[in-house]
Amino acid sequence: xxNRGPGAYDPVRITNSTPYNAFxxxxxxxxxxxxxxxxxxxxxxxxASSRGVCLVTKITATVKTPSGxxxxxxxxxxxxxxxxxxxxxVGVNKFQVTRVVxxxxxx
Length: 107
Known about the structure:
- The protein is an all-beta fold.
- Helices cover 0% and strands 50% of the residues.
- It has one domain (13-99): Domain of unknown function DUF5300 (Immunoglobulin-like, Sandwich).
- The protein has strands spanning 13-16, 22-28, 36-40, 45-47, 56-65, 68-71, 75-80, 84-91, 94-99.
- The strands form two sheets. Strands 2, 3, 5, 6 and 7 form a five-stranded antiparallel β-sheet that branches. Strands 4-1-8-9 form a four-stranded mixed β-sheet, with no helix packed on it.
C-alpha cells in the first residue's frame, strides 16, 4: 500500500465526524518533510499520500459551518508517530482535532 519504506509510519488519516466539510494542514517535525494541506467532506476520511518517517507536530482544521468558517482547536505534539486523527464537534460551533485511540469493537 503506497510507497512506505522500511521504518515508515502509517500515512496520516483524518476522519471528519462533524456534519460539515473541513480543511486544514498537517505539519511535520522535520524540514525534510513537506506539510500536507487537506480537505475532507463530512463523514469521510482523508488519507495522506505518503509520510515516510515524519513525526506529526500539529494538525489544524477549519470547519465550514452555515454561520461561517470556525477554527477547530488544533492537535499539537512535540512529534508523534500516531496516524489516526479525527475532527470532532465538542459544542455549539466548537470543534477539535483529536487523536483516535483504536478500540476493538466487541460484538
